[in-house]
Specification:
heterotrimer; A alpha/beta; B mainly beta; C alpha/beta; A: FAD/NAD(P)-binding domain; 3 domains; five-stranded parallel beta sheet; 22 strands; B: mainly beta; Ubiquitin-like (UB roll); five-stranded mixed beta sheet; 7 strands
Amino acid sequence: MREACDLVIVGAGPGGLAAACRAAEAGLDVLVLDQQPEPGGQVWRGEARKGTNRLARRWLSRFAASGARFRPGARVVAAPEPGLLLVEEGPSSLAVRYGRLVLATGARERFLPFPGWTLPGVLGVSGLQVLVKDGLSIRGRRVVLAGTGPLLLAAAATLHAHGGEVLLIAEQAPAARHWGFALQLWRYPGKLLQGAVLSAGLVGVRTATEAWVLEARGEHRLESVRMSVSGREEQLACDYLGAAWGLVPNLELARLLGCEVSGGAVVVDERMETRVPRVHAVGELLGIGGVDQALISGELAGLAAAEQPVPDSLEKSWRRVRAFAGALALHDAPRPELRRLATPETLLCRCEDVPLSALEDCTNLREARLYARLGMGSCQGRTCGAAAETLFGWAAESVRPPGLPARIGSLRPPAEPPPTLKRES
Amino acid sequence: MREPGAKAATSVTLRINGRALTVPAGTSVAAALALAGDLVSRSDLAGRPRGPLCGMGVCFECRATVDGVPEVLTCLTPCREDLEVVTDA
Amino acid sequence: MNTFDCVIVGGGIVGAALADVLSAEGLSIALVEACSIGSGTTACGMGHLVAMDDNAAELALTAWSVALWRELRDELPLAVEYDACGTLWLATDSEERAAIDAKVASYRGVGVRAEVLDAAALREAEPALSPGLVGALRVPDDAVLYPPRAALHFARRARDRGARLMPGCPVHALRPGSVVLENGEALAAGHIVLAAGVASPRLCPELPISPRKGHLLITHRGAPVVHHQLVELGYLKSAHGSGGASVAFNAQPRVTGQLLLGSSRQPGADGSHVEPAILERMLKRAADFLPGLDGLRALRVWTGLRPATPDGLPLLGPHPEKPWLWLACGHEGLGITTATGSARLVADQLLGRSSAIDSRPYAPARFLASMTPLSEAHHA
C-alpha cells in the first residue's frame, strides 16, 4: 500500500498533535502515524476514549477537526531514501511519501537492572500506570513505586484513583534536591497547578526521599520487594512494583534518518528542523521536557512546515519551557547507588538473557554486543542500551534498518513503486 | 475489571490460551493478561516467565501470538471480540 | 621499547588465528588491533566454513582449512556456535544441475565428501525451499560459526600463553623491525605480520586490496528451520564476477533459531551504510528460493567490507620487497573459512617449515614481484 502527504508526523503524543493541528489548519495534507490504536501518545493514553484531562480533550478535539489523517498501529521500520518511510501496520506494509517529516517519537522510561526485575509484576512506573489506564485491575492490590520526578507522582495518582493500595512512593533524589525541584515549580504557574492536583490526590500515601528498590522477590511472579529507605532496609509484600528512573528520548528513528544528536537530544534550529533538511524533531527528542515543551515545539514545527509566521507569545513560551527542561534533567539523574543494584546473575539484556557477569571483559557497547549478545534481541537494545549507558557510560551505536523488528516484506518497497523510486530488475 | 463509576462500556470477549475472558472495550491485551494468569506473556530463553514491562511498545516483553501472528506487542493491541491470544509461557 | 618475536597487526580472525598458532610455537607475540578483537570485517561476515572449488588453489586452501576447523571443534566454546550443518549448493535449472557432477568429482579429488541430491531428496531435506529447484550438491562437512567469538577464542588462547593483546591501538606505521602505534609507542618485532584486512593498504599502499561491500540480514529467533547452509550455485558467478553489484542467495540456520541471510557484492563500494536498492535485490533473490521469506521478522541489517584481491586469493607470505614484513590479508569473503589454514601457511613459512598444501598460489609476489625490478632500477 502507498500513501503520500505534504507532512508526515511520527508520533501522536502532544508534540505530534500540536504539529499536526498547526500544519493541517494552514492547509497542508498531514498524515500522523502512531504505534498505538488511538492518538494521545503515552501521556494522554486513553484520553481519546475517556476525555478526563481538559488539555488533552482540547488538543484531541482540535486534532479531530484539523483535517489531519491518523493511522493507528503504524510502526516506521525503515527510511530508505529522503522523502520515503516504510511502515508496518499489523499484517500489512505501507510506503509513505512525504514532503516534510516531524519526528515526535517521545520518550521511554529509563530502566536499571536490579535482582528480580524480570519477574512478572515488576513494571516501569509509567508502564504500570499505562496498563492500569488500559484496564489492568489494580483495586485492592498492593503497589510499590520506585523512581524519580513528577512522573512518579503522576503514576501514583492514577493507581490511587483506580483503587490501588500504594504502600510506598520511593523517590531516589535526596530531600534537598527533591524539594528544591518542587520549589522550582513555584516559578512556573502551569507546573504548580499540576503538582498541586497530584498532591491532593495522594493524601495519606507514604512517600520517602533517598529511597529505591534493592530487590524484587517471588517464585513465578512478584511477591515482595526489598527497599532502601533513607539508609535503612525494609521488606514489603506487594503485588506490583513500578520501577524506573526518569525518561530517555526515543532517538532511534532520528538516528536512522541521520539527524545529529548531541548530549542525548536531537539538534534542531529555531524551526525545530534537524540537521537533515525537511526533517523536524519535537517534544522529548529535544531533551526531556514534558507536555508543555512538546506542545510548544510541536506548534513551532507545524508552523514551520506550513511556512507560517510564529507568534511572539509562542517564542516566549518556548524559552520558558526550555528552562524547565534543564531543571528536570538535573533532578532526574540516577544516583550512583542505582548503578550498583545488579548482581553478577542479574540479567541486563532481557531479550537475550545476558547477565551482568557476561560483560566482565567488555570495554564498550560494541564488545558487549559482539561477545555477549547484549542488545541483539527483539527490542534492539532499547532497554539495555540506556541501562548500559547509565551503568558503564557506554555510548549508543549507530542505528541501521530496520528501525523496529519488521517483516522482511515490509523492508521491501511496495509492489507498485512510487514514480520516483527506480526499481532494479 | 471495570472500575466502579467508570462510564458504561460495551464489553468484548476474547480467548487467552483457550480460556474465554470478558473485558471492557478499550482494555489492552497486555492488561487482560493479568486476568488470564499473573500477567505472564512469554517465557525467556531459560523458560522463566516474563510479563509486560514498559507498556508502550518499547521493551517487547509483552509479545504473544495474536490471531496466529507471532510476536505481537500486546500492550499496543486492544482486546477485540473473538481475539485469540496465545502466550508462549 | 617492548620487544616481541612477532607483532601481528590486525586482530580480526586471521590475525587472532595466527597469534594462536605462533604462540603455541613458543614465540612471543603482540596482537595489535585498532578497535576490538574480531570487530571489523570478522564481525560482519556470515561465518561460513565452506569448501569452495572455483579454482584449484581456492579449493586446496578452503578444504584444508575446513578440516582444520573440524579438528578444533571440540575445544571451541559454546559461544563460538560451531554447527556442522553442511552446505547445500542449489541448482535452479538443468544447466546448474549438470554442473554438479563435475563439482562432486573436484571435491572428492581433494578428499572432501560431496553428494548429489535430486529434486525429491532436496525437498525432503529442506521443505522450506522453493519447489522449483532441480537438485543440490551436498557438502556435509562444511559448517557455520559465530566469527567474533571464534576470533576472541584464538586471541584469548594466545594471551593465556603469554601473548600481549592490544585492542584499541591503531597503528601509525610499519618500519623495518618495528611497529609504530598512533599513540607514539613503538613495538620492536623480529617479524611483522600485516593481517589488517581492508585496512591493510593504509599501512602498505602497494597492496592490491580493495573493499567489496556486502549486506546481511538476520531474523528473530522464531524463524522456520532450515537444516543446511543454503547457497545458490550461481553464487560463484556472483562472488567472482568482475562487473558491478551482484546478489546471490545464501542462508544459514543459526543455533539461536535465527536465519542469517545474504549476500551481495559491490566492488569498490565503501562506507558502512545500508543501501536499500541492494538490500531489495538481495531480499528479492532470497525470496525466490525461500517463498515464505517476506513473512519472517528481520531484527538487523548490516554491511561489511570484504578485502578483495584481483584474483580472489589471499596474500599469504613474505612481502617480496620488504623482507621484514609478512602478509596475511586479502581474504575477501573467505577469511573465516581460511583463517585456520592461512595462519598455518604463514606460520610455517615464517618458521621455515613446509606446509600441508603448496603455499605458492597465495604468495604476495604474484602481484608485488613486478615492482622489484622497477624499484631496483630506481635505486640503481
